[in-house]
Amino acid sequence: MKIIKTIVALAFTIPVAALAQDSIAVTTDEYPNTFSSGSANVYPFTQQSKRFNDWSISAGAGVPLVQSADLTSLKNGNGSGKDIFGYSAYFSVDKAITHAFGLKLQYDRGETRQGWFNTKKEDPTSTGFQEVGARTQYDAISLMGDINFSNLLRRVDNKSPYRWALHGYAGIGTLAYRAYLEDLNGQKMMKEVKPFSMSSLFGQAGGGLKYKASRRVDIEGRVMYVVTGDDQFDGGGAQYSSINRREDQVSDNFINAQLGLTVKLGKHQSHLFWHDPLQEIYYKLDVLAEKNRDVEVCKAGDNDNDGVCDDWDRELDTPAGARVDGAGVALDTDLDGVIDLYDKCVTVPGPVENDGCPTTTTGIITDDTRTLEGIEFDLDSDRILPSNTPILNNAVNYINSTQGSYRVVGATDTRASDAYNQRLSERRANNVKNYLIQNGVESGKLEAVGRGEKDLKYPECNPATKCPEWKNRANRRVYFEAK
User: Fold this and answer.
1) 389 membership: H or E segment, kind and range
2) H or E element that contains 186
3) Of 231, 265, 236, nearest to 250 (Cα)?
4) When you count CB atoms within 10 A of the terminal residue's CB, does the N or C end of the chain come out lower?
5) What is the rounded distance in angstroms from the CA atom of residue 76 to the CA atom of residue 116?
6) What are the pLDDT digits (tens) for 62-94?
7) pTM as predicted
8) What pLDDT does 65 receive?
9) Which domains are seen in the chain, by residue range?
10) What ranges in 266-336 are assigned the alpha helix state H?
11) CB-based contacts of 335, cutoff 8 Å, min separation 6
């Protein structure tokens, strides 16, 4: 029962995890300032906001061929028998997690046939004495991963129609079966295995080639290799019987060749596994180029020449050279009230009188010490973000060019307990120190110190709920002090 509980838990947990894509969204409805589209303007990911279908169901049928066993389906393994074919069918519920990976909860049912004759159509007297036939009826439930190799390998500038896709599958589950053997003495059941027990575990892996027949339907041919983990699956009886005579045979396995359909569910035009957003862009650009239309972009003009028409421009007097957002508002990356054009510390908030750069206990920051900018961290994390590596690389160059030593100071916001925040700040400081040492700074020049929530850049953010998220993020930082 533990296995079925695990499978059911995964089946319900994965869709929930796929939807929980905004776990640190800011709950306030307010912006950091009137004209900002910054980090506080975050909306939860919901079913209504999805652009693509990501659920589907699949079904198909095929032929299982027992090959790695004592009794096999093709010539009985030694060329002396016949080719004997069984049947198989599958049904699955499929969830696309990303454009290249998904999960399948699949049910399989079928009957393998193996030995010297087909027990459904022949009797042992027609083949000769000592020759036997067997069949195995099976049911299986498995959870499989689905990798879309075509999406992983496809060039992003490929403009050709995308109708074929190569998929790889692998997973584990529970297998139940009844194995029958027939000889001159008649037919009898050799073994029965119930589902959802440790002895019924099995695995399967393989590949499939999908063809996009329509927006809703895919056709797929797949070949799966099934590892039963049981030497008696072929109906040969006990491990060391006259039939199961190979002592090193620990698992009777079979190949399942199948043909099936996938029906994509949902209201959207495209499924996540098939959608190529670049196709839409190329198509629209090609159409515009062919029609060669003269489009009057701004009827009311663009008086500040920021690229946003005055009809939609929320800031009609943007300074020349300033970068703007889609509403024509000059960008202020660190949300400190100094636009990026005039901000000498673009990524670090600071007062207007210091050109947007932070102040320290020693006074106004100089042009030299701006080289040692600090970095910020995600909530409850000590991981150095890729966007911060240029700042740290500049710090490496600056420290190596000086004779002084520096204190690497870690800090947190006011969420969690004092003790936890102290440990978190120490981890942040040590991670930055180790990064600098690994990139060429002498260890003797650096000292890592954690100050927890006792060193707030914005002291008014205690508790954190009193401040917008950008201020709390600024409190989650590592910065440098000259010793």
Assistant:
1) helix 389-400
2) strand 186-193
3) 231
4) N
5) 6
6) 999 998 888 888 887 656 667 899 999 999 999
7) 0.51
8) 95
9) 50-265 (2.40.160.20), 296-324 (no CATH), 368-482 (3.30.1330.60)
10) 277-291
11) 32, 33, 36, 38, 349, 470
